[in-house]
């Protein structure tokens, strides 16, 4: 049977090597679980399913191991040492493998870790694993709409079948829950941040309850994105002013009602006063007024309020880079402890490469959460192969120097730098109704990598890629290495032929796909391409060191030093901060113009190499996956040419210089 990718990384195909199977089988003869809860039951059934598939044997489960050895014991022990909530330990103990955790969720994560060890061919003897999540709320944000569309979704329509719920439960909800639990994701906001009030109606709460009931046995809590104007649109009030007593009461009542459906409701996610969405500023109030009002409504319950910091003004003379910082900075310290402010990784909008957001490290008195975009709005959508773990890590590993060297973004968002109680890493989901969930088979790896990094941002991108490949694609060691190399090269390649040297935001308007560097007019004055690249006859790039904008000054002195001097600034970020003359010689020995051309041309060549690499894997891949990726790589080549020619020919109108000879041989 062809592999349609629907099982993601939880394929559990029979291991080919019989000896290896026997070895694992000798250590997994039975399952004993000392705890009776739906989540532990999920762990047991997952282990049974995994052993059945991978090892080809039925394994029975009971409450106690008795005097037996050679089995897997699951233990929930509230006093377990060295473990945080959700953490787990796996030890070889007296002839058994013991998975212990403080909570049922920890046991479930441990069970998936054990399966992953088998899936990736690791030894199960002398196990001594301790694993704790670095971030508490590891969350997917779905931008799914009630009408079944997905904003910036490239894998079909919404996976949530709102018209069928609550009566029919699509089996894919369970697969989705399993996939998330396998990588430690424990929260999901189920609807678009451009939120319809409809999701707060009794009709929809009943549907959301049905989803929550499916996700709960996998340790996943449901959040709802809310429209700030709901007291007016749903409640019939005259205002949605967060300081109005009736408005407060409306939210208190609504929050109570939600908890009648979903007792463990995760909380609200809010996009307010951003891109036309309503918010507290409509009534002369601040983001903190709005967020704190909702936090007050959540006071009696366990959940929280996640308030997004993605705000900007349409000011052609301002710098959008600074907008969120400027609006939120005066509010630092005024947010309720139940509020997490969710900040995109970079200051603009999920560009393929952005410097880390200047809010990280500059808000000691606010819990800041991370928002990554897993769906590839600006990263080739569902046709270009782009492995995002290195991008996520580049941001997390960046040093803010807020409290001296080592004050990384990761330490800001895990709460450790400023001793915050809560912590959050969210990823905008790339899931949809396509059979393989993500359209491009490799996009599955980005979902996988996001979860693994939210659990442990110290994992390397290579390590995560290796795990994913071993569980999904090629079976030979050499084949796995080839795929890993392709994945590791993919983001730099994509950046080369789209946004080299720190350029940004030159994509087609609206669809955000393909190049449009010449875009001069748009619905919003700071959404044109020329606003971002600032090309002129002298050079290219947005001076943020003071001449045009002083955005660099938002960072700590060390970061300013690192990026402020064009001679020392990494070429990756150069044009984010500097307007560089076309003729200026860069550290590569080429002038800016020649380097720019070189990167665009080299990017295309590298895509061709990816195609050759993929071709070499044909003998060991199933036909469907092979052909699927092959076809997408052909589109990628065509579109890399499109980006290259569009951008180079456009910039030539400023440079009036030829494309350097070695790139285009004379005819
Ligand atoms: O990048 C922009 C997207 C919008 C999105 C917005 C946001 C949900 O183009 O589609 O809206 O970001 O993050 O709010």
Automatic annotation (TrEMBL):
<keyword id="KW-0378">Hydrolase</keyword>
<keyword id="KW-0326">Glycosidase</keyword>
<feature type="domain" description="Glycosyl hydrolase family 67 C-terminal">
    <location>
        <begin position="438"/>
        <end position="661"/>
    </location>
</feature>
<dbReference type="InterPro" id="IPR011395">
    <property type="entry name" value="Glyco_hydro_67_aGlcAse"/>
</dbReference>
<dbReference type="InterPro" id="IPR017853">
    <property type="entry name" value="GH"/>
</dbReference>
<dbReference type="InterPro" id="IPR011100">
    <property type="entry name" value="Glyco_hydro_67_cat"/>
</dbReference>
<keyword id="KW-0624">Polysaccharide degradation</keyword>
<comment type="subunit">
    <text>Homodimer.</text>
</comment>
<dbReference type="InterPro" id="IPR037054">
    <property type="entry name" value="A-glucoronidase_C_sf"/>
</dbReference>
<keyword id="KW-0119">Carbohydrate metabolism</keyword>
<dbReference type="Pfam" id="PF03648">
    <property type="entry name" value="Glyco_hydro_67N"/>
</dbReference>
<feature type="domain" description="Alpha glucuronidase N-terminal">
    <location>
        <begin position="8"/>
        <end position="114"/>
    </location>
</feature>
<comment type="similarity">
    <text>Belongs to the glycosyl hydrolase 67 family.</text>
</comment>
<dbReference type="InterPro" id="IPR011099">
    <property type="entry name" value="Glyco_hydro_67_C"/>
</dbReference>
<dbReference type="Pfam" id="PF07477">
    <property type="entry name" value="Glyco_hydro_67C"/>
</dbReference>
<keyword id="KW-0858">Xylan degradation</keyword>
<feature type="domain" description="Glycosyl hydrolase family 67 catalytic">
    <location>
        <begin position="118"/>
        <end position="437"/>
    </location>
</feature>
<dbReference type="GO" id="GO:0016787">
    <property type="term" value="F:hydrolase activity"/>
</dbReference>
<dbReference type="Pfam" id="PF07488">
    <property type="entry name" value="Glyco_hydro_67M"/>
</dbReference>
<dbReference type="InterPro" id="IPR005154">
    <property type="entry name" value="Glyco_hydro_67_aGlcAse_N"/>
</dbReference>
<dbReference type="InterPro" id="IPR029018">
    <property type="entry name" value="Hex-like_dom2"/>
</dbReference>
<protein>
    <recommendedName>
        <fullName>Xylan alpha-1,2-glucuronidase</fullName>
        <ecNumber>3.2.1.131</ecNumber>
    </recommendedName>
</protein>
């Amino acid at each position: 049977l062809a592999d349609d990718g629907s099982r993601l990384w939880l394929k559990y195909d029979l291991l080919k090597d019989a000896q290896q199977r026997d070895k694992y089988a000798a250590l997994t003869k039975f399952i004993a679980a000392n705890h009776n809860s739906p989540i532990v039951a999920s762990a047991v059934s997952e282990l049974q399913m995994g052993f059945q598939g991978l090892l080809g044997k039925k394994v029975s489960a009971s409450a106690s191991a008795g005097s037996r050895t050679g089995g897997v014991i699951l233990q929930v022990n509230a006093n377990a040492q060295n473990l945080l909530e959700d953490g787990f330990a796996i030890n070889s103990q007296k002839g058994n493998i013991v998975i212990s955790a403080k909570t049922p969720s920890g046991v479930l994560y441990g069970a998936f870790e054990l399966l992953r060890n088998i899936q990736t061919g690791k030894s199960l003897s002398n196990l001594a694993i301790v694993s704790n999540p670095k971030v508490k709320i590891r969350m997917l944000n779905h931008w799914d709409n009630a009408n079944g569309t997905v904003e910036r979704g490239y894998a079909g329509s919404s996976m949530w079948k709102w018209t069928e719920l609550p009566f029919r439960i699509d089996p894919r909800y369970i697969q989705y829950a399993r996939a998330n639990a396998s990588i430690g994701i424990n929260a999901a906001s189920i609807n678009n941040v451009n939120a319809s009030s409809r999701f707060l109606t009794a009709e929809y709460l009943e549907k959301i309850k049905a989803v929550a009931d499916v996700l709960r046995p996998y340790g996943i809590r449901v959040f709802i994105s809310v429209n700030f104007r709901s007291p007016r649109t749903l409640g019939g009030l005259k205002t949605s002013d967060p300081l109005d007593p009736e408005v407060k009461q409306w939210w208190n009542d609504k929050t109570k009602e939600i908890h009648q459906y979903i007792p463990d409701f995760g909380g609200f996610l809010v996009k307010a006063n951003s891109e036309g969405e309503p918010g507290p500023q409509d009534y002369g109030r601040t983001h903190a007024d709005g967020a704190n009002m909702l936090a007050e409504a959540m006071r009696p319950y366990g959940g929280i309020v996640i308030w997004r910091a993605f705000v900007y003004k349409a000011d052609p003379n301002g710098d959008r880079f600074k907008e969120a910082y400027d609006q939120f900075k005066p509010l630092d310290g005024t947010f309720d402890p139940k509020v997490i402010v969710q900040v995109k990784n970079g200051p603009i909008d999920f560009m393929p490469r952005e410097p880390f957001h200047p809010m990280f490290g500059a808000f000691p008195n606010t819990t800041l959460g991370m928002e990554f975009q897993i769906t590839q709005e600006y990263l080739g959508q569902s046709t270009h192969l782009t492995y995002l773990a290195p991008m996520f890590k580049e941001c997390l590993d960046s040093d803010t120097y807020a409290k001296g060297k080592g004050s990384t973004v990761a330490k800001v968002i895990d709460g450790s730098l400023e001793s915050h109680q809560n912590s959050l890493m969210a990823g905008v989901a790339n899931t949809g109704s396509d059979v393989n969930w993500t359209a491009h088979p490799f996009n599955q790896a980005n979902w996988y990598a996001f979860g693994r990094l939210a659990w442990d941002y110290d994992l390397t991108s290579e390590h995560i890629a290796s795990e994913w490949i071993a569980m999904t694609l090629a079976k030979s060691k050499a084949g796995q290495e080839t795929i890993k190399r392709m994945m590791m090269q993919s983001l730099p390649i994509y950046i080369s032929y789209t946004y080299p040297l720190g350029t940004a935001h030159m994509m087609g308007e609206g669809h955000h796909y393909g190049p449009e560097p010449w875009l001069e007019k748009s619905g919003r004055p700071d959404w044109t391409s020329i606003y971002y690249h600032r090309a002129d006859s002298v050079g290219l790039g947005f001076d943020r060191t003071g001449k045009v904008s002083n955005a660099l000054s938002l960072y700590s002195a060390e970061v300013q030093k690192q990026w402020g001097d064009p001679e020392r600034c990494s070429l990756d970020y150069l044009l984010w901060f500097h307007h560089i003359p076309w003729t200026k010689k860069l550290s590569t020995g080429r002038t800016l113009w020649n380097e720019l051309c070189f990167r665009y041309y080299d990017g295309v060549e590298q895509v061709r190499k990816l195609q050759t690499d993929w071709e070499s894997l044909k003998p060991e891949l199933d036909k469907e996956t092979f052909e699927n990726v092959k076809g997408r790589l052909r589109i990628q080549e065509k579109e890399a040419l499109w980006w290259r020619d569009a951008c180079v020919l456009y910039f030539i109108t400023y440079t009036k210089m030829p494309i350097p000879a070695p790139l285009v041989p004379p005819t």
